Structures are given as structure tokens and as C-alpha cells.
């Protein structure tokens, strides 16, 4: 199975900056046009930025699990792994916790 991480991790990291709140990692790259979820387009279009940063920081996401936003500050562009959680695929609603 092909690893789903960016071709150049430093380019990916360059799109992350400090958020307005402690612990947030603000994504300054593109977001999905309909739901505002941060996306990363390398090595292929549409990778979820939260999943990519999770895999870079914590390793592979287990099968049948998805990474969703759980930012305590409700910052929609936050990709900090500490502000995300793993849930069963299909549980998420528009990339945020229920």
C-alpha cells in the first residue's frame, strides 16, 4: 500500500503556522471549496491536511479510522494533532466532531 504523505514534508510544514490560540496549528494552504476542510494536493489532489499531519507526527492511521477536527477553540483551519482525534470512518460529519 502506498504511503499517503506529502512528497516534500518541509513544503507541507511551511503551510502550518501558529494559530490565534495556544496549541493550534493554523493551515494556510488550500481548503475544500464546499466544507472548508484543509486539504493538501501533493502527491495527489484532495488529501485531508489533518490526516497528512497526523501521519507525519504520529504514524499511519489504522484501517477504518478517520482523522477529524476536535479543536477546543473551534478553529476550522487547525491541523494540530493534539486537536484532532481518530474515529470510525463514516462517523464524522463535515470533518468536525458531532
Can you walk through the features of this model?
The chain is of the alpha+beta class. The protein has two helices and six strands; from the N terminus they run αββββαββ. The strands form three sheets. It has a two-stranded antiparallel ribbon. A two-stranded antiparallel sheet has the order 3-4. Strands 5-6 form a two-stranded antiparallel sheet. A hairpin with a 6-residue loop joins strand 3 and strand 4. It starts with 8 loop residues before the first helix and ends in a 10-residue tail after the last strand. Residues 1-5 have low confidence and may be disordered.
Summarize the structure.
The chain is α+β, with helices and mostly antiparallel strands and 98 residues long.
Sheet with most strands: 2 strands, antiparallel
Number of strands: 6
Order of helix and strand elements from N to C terminus: HEEEEHEE
Strand content: 15-25%
Helix content: 10-25%
**Order of strands in the sheet with the most strands?**
1-2
Secondary structure blueprint with pairings:
Elements lengths: L8 H5 L2 E3 L6 E3 L11 E2 L6 E2 H10 L6 E5 L14 E5 L10
Antiparallel strand pairs: 1-2, 3-4, 5-6
Q: Any key phrases for this structure?
A:
98 residues; alpha+beta; two-stranded antiparallel sheet; 2 helices; 6 strands; 15% helix; 20% strand; globular; disordered N terminus
Amino acid at each position: 500500500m502506498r504511503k499517503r504523505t506529502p512528497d516534500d514534508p518541509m513544503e507541507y510544514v511551511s503551510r502550518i503556522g501558529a494559530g490565534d490560540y495556544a496549541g493550534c496549528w493554523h493551515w494556510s494552504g488550500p481548503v475544500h471549496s464546499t466544507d472548508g476542510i484543509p486539504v493538501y494536493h501533493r502527491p495527489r489532489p484532495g488529501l485531508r491536511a489533518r490526516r497528512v499531519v497526523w501521519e507525519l507526527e504520529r504514524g499511519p492511521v489504522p484501517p477504518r479510522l478517520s482523522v477529524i477536527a476536535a479543536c477546543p477553540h473551534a478553529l476550522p483551519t487547525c491541523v494540530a494533532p493534539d486537536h484532532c482525534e481518530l474515529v470510525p470512518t463514516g462517523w464524522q460529519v463535515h470533518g468536525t466532531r458531532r
